Automatic annotation (TrEMBL):
Name listed for the protein in its UniProt record: Delta(3)-Delta(2)-enoyl-CoA isomerase
PANTHER family: ENOYL-COA HYDRATASE-RELATED, ENOYL-COA HYDRATASE_ISOMERASE FAMILY PROTEIN
Coiled coil: none
UniProt keywords, alphabetically: Isomerase, Lipid metabolism
Pfam family, one: ECH_1
Catalytic activity: a (3Z)-enoyl-CoA = a 4-saturated (2E)-enoyl-CoA; a (3E)-enoyl-CoA = a 4-saturated (2E)-enoyl-CoA
Domain of life: Eukaryota
Record organism: Actinidia chinensis var. chinensis
InterPro entries for this protein: ClpP/crotonase-like_dom_sf (IPR029045), Enoyl-CoA_hydra/iso (IPR001753)
Listed EC numbers: 5.3.3.8
GO cellular component: peroxisome
Keyword tRNA-binding listed: no
One of the GO BP terms on file: fatty acid beta-oxidation
Protein family membership: Belongs to the enoyl-CoA hydratase/isomerase family.
Amino acid sequence: MCTLEKRGEIFFLTLTGDDDHRLNPSLMDSLRSALREVKEQSTRGSALITTARGKFFSNGFDLAWAQSAGSAAAVEDRLLHLVDLFKPEVADLISLPMPTIAAVTGHAAAAGMMLAMSHDYVLMRSDRGVLYMSELDIGMKFPDYFTALVRSKVGSAAARRDVMLRAKKVTASEALAMGIVDSAHDSAEAVVEAAVRLGEELVKRKWDGEVYGEIRKALYPELCGVLGLADKAVITSPRHVPTL
């Protein structure tokens, strides 16, 4: 499942279940509950780091759970159910009132890659692990919000093509060159340490979380439209900004 810990102003959300961390109804319910708690406990200057234990950051939707339904129609219904359940989780992250960092300590495939990319910053280990959108290889269409997320977060058309139309297994160095991740590190521990350093830098700015979340949503209008996230007017008292 997952655990949530707060150290200072940084929340640590860690996937702790089996090695694959496949997204099934139980895990997604646990993640959404943790994100609600993060939002409720947030203060000016909070940040979130999401990471995982084991070989995978997340191996995507729990296909075994879907296939255990039996008939083809029942399996399809379960797959659609997973797609529907994950959509509000992406919306939660895109609207969360604080900076968010994914410390990708293992493979991130399909919905697992989308989970990572729903964060503001993605840090990845370079000694092991790939990013991989497997839908083309297994014969599944992309949900509309997956496509909108990739278009919003990956600037290069060639990179988008390789990820979605070539099903390329992208290493950390390749992901860095494509602009999918922000930095690459030589071990899982180094990824988490770098995420903590970044988180500490961000919380020092003491930004208003509601303002931060609204600016983030404004950056991704197509994605927010697909997710059903509406803009909110936010007016706060201006803070003194030191002269440079």
